[in-house]
Protein: Phosphotransferase system EIIB component type 2/3 domain-containing protein
Amino acid sequence: RGPAGPQPARRRPARPRPASPSPAPAAVAPAASGGPKRVVAVTACPTGVAHTFMAAAASAPEAQQRGWWVGGGARGAGG
Structure:
């Protein structure tokens, strides 16, 4: 409370949003067609452990069947 009593809340003017989201830039060039592919698992887990292993267990058999390399790493509070 100020000396004149409670003041009404102030609102910030709304920011204009872009018409469409811009695509994220590719981190690496696409793999050459016909060659083995490399798949990197990125998981979002607070501890960075359980979902990494779950992703590996689900992805590895399919990647192996297709002749691809698959990998991941633990990143998080416990990883």
